[in-house]
Amino acid sequence: MRNIRLVCIGRIKERYLQEGIAEYEKRLHPYCKLEIIELKDEGIEKEAKRLEKYLSPATFILDANGKELDSIEFSNFIKRQEGGELTFIIGSAQGVDGGLKSRSQLISLSKMTFTHEMCRLFLIEQLYRSFQILANRPYHK
Q1: Within a 10 A sphere around the Cβ of 40, how many other Cβ atoms?
Q2: Where are the alpha helices (H) located in 29-115, listed in sequence order?
Q3: 71-80 and 116-134 helices cross at what angle (nearest 10)?
């Protein structure tokens, strides 16, 4: 079973987002072990120091300028990340430190701008969709 870690700056305040995230966490349970780590929103420089320990070749930072993947490409991307743990970093409203971004792979959910709270829900839904695609389940259609 794959381990997936989401490292997020800030907490989810909106109840509807909390409920959506909880639903997809539940749905992901058979496919992966999902760990969500919430770090305090305390400015890009301090956040960078705390995020640094999560950097590895299997760490991906969500960024508007990152590589865009459609759902099929994202599921293939997940499939290719063999072994170990996948880590996704979602920064605060101010983003993620440029130094960290230069040392990581960047992916984008869209060219559109979303709140970092919504990005968490969208990413978790896309992870679930990916596992459904890989299992040839009808959810994707």
Answers
A1: 12
A2: 44-51, 71-80, 98-102
A3: 70
CA–CA gap between residue 124 and residue 21 (Å, rounded): 7
Band the pLDDT of 134: cuts 50, 70, 90: very high
CATH number given to 2-140:
3.40.1280.10
- What tokens were used for 140? 């994707």
pTM confidence score? 0.94
What token pair was written down for 90? Answer: 């979602």
Residue bearing tokens 């997020």: 8
Residue in the block written with tokens 């909106």: 14
**What type of residue sits at position 108?**
S
Res. 141: pLDDT tops 70? no
Q: Tell me which residue of 108, 116, 118 sits closest to 47, measured CA to CA.
A: 116
Structure tokens at 28: 């992901």
CA of 120: how far to CAs of 36, 60, 109, 130, 135, in Å?
10, 13, 10, 15, 23
